[in-house]
Design a protein that fits this description.
The protein is an alpha/beta fold and 311 residues long. The chain is 37% helix and 17% strand. Bound molecules: nicotinamide-adenine-dinucleotide and uridine-5'-diphosphate.
């Protein structure tokens, strides 16, 4: 059945893939964005569709729309961008959540929150399961993002309990793929751009910290499956690829796949940078029948081709 779907942050990396997927499934899509890190270029190819609307709006302000479902993705996700204006980042997470939950309550829409593995902070439990409460520094440089997202989860949960708003909480682990910007600052885009340009690959710290990288198509599939799951299942649920790699291994893989002459250089490790991260996806498998399908090598090659085509 055709549904009217609002995607906040729809012109960003994940949002643009989600808008495309929802349009392909035959829904009416409203993409809302303030273009802080998102770009019109990401959704340019969708503008011809009569079922797609692009709205410039900041989620810290209320908005009235008639929709059936809301995917709340608005929030910068890269550390350099979310640390650029920490107060704005907290406002986006917290006031954005309040405004979108208020809208969902008024129009009786189902609402999904794009939460994050950063909820777990620098985790002391490995791999991370949804029942782990996390290890977050509340006043560190990452706090504006981590605590903003934690508070958003609290708001979602409270609106669900108090007002019976149908909610879905998705904890997304590091995702990469086409439509990331070259200056996004996240590790996969940084390394690919550096490798393609023959520049030094900037490893922060010794590169022993780990991350688990999920290709965007897989993450979006998990997101849509969660939205479509029975109302009783609200999450939180981890979506991510359990394949865990050190940052140095990632750099070496990208050099190999791009056949680059780039050298590794070592820079200071940012404060509070998590040392390890790997999702336990048992719950997603059980409740959503979801698991990632794209290997790191396959996903990296697709992403490399995207950045090559943009040069
Ligand atoms: P992104 O920066 O590419 O996209 C965020 C989008 O939100 C951008 O289009 C930006 O312009 C928009 N935005 C920011 N502040 C806004 C505001 N106040 N009002 C309206 N729009 C605003 O990042 P992304 O990787 O696409 O992330 C999307 C969502 O998924 C974020 O909420 C992020 O926290 C979450 N997430 C992403 C990852 C990942 O690895 N990509 C991991 C965990 C969680
Ligand atoms: N990183 C790095 N070089 C870069 C960018 C990032 O070594 O040019 C490291 C960063 O310190 C972190 C990991 O890669 O340990 C992932 O960083 P990213 O910003 O992509 O995501 P997050 O830290 O939020 O998981």
């Amino acid at each position: 059945m055709r549904r009217r779907v609002l995607v906040t942050g729809g012109a960003g990396f994940l949002g643009s893939h989600l808008c495309e997927r929802l349009l392909n499934e035959g829904h009416d899509v409203i993409c809302l964005d303030n273009f802080f890190t998102g770009r019109k270029a990401n959704v340019l190819h969708l503008l011809d569709s009569p079922y797609f609307e692009l709205v410039r709006h900041d989620v810290i302000n209320p908005i009235m729309l008639e929709v059936d479902e809301i995917y709340n993705l608005a929030c910068p996700a890269s550390p350099i961008h979310y640390q650029f204006n920490p107060i704005k980042t907290i406002k986006t997470s917290v006031m954005g959540a309040i405004n979108m939950l208020g809208l969902a309550k008024r129009v009786k829409a189902k609402i999904l929150q794009a939460s994050t593995s950063e909820i777990y902070g620098d985790p002391q439990v490995h791999p991370q399961r949804e029942d782990y409460w996390g290890h977050v520094n509340p006043i560190g440089p990452r706090a504006c993002y981590d605590e903003g997202k934690r508070c958003a989860e609290t708001l979602f949960s409270s609106y669900h309990i108090q007002n019976r708003v149908p909610i879905k909480l998705l904890r997304i682990f590091n995702t990469y793929g086409p439509n990331m910007t070259a200056d996004d600052g996240r590790v996969v885009s940084n390394f690919i751009v550096q490798a393609l340009e023959g520049k030094d690959i900037t490893i922060y710290g010794e590169g022993n910290q780990t991350r688990s990288f999920c290709f965007v198509e897989d993450t979006i599939d998990g997101m849509v499956r969660l939205m479509n799951s029975p109302d009783e299942f609200i999450g939180p649920v981890n979506i991510g690829n359990p394949g865990e790699f050190t940052i140095k291994q990632l750099a070496e893989k990208i050099i190999e796949l791009t056949d680059s002459s780039s050298q590794l250089i070592y820079e200071d490790l940012p404060q509070d940078d998590p040392m390890q991260r790997q999702p336990d996806i048992t719950l997603a498998k059980e409740k959503l029948g979801w698991e990632p399908r794209v290997s790191l090598e396959e996903g990296l090659l697709k992403t490399i081709r995207y950045f090559q085509a943009r040069k």
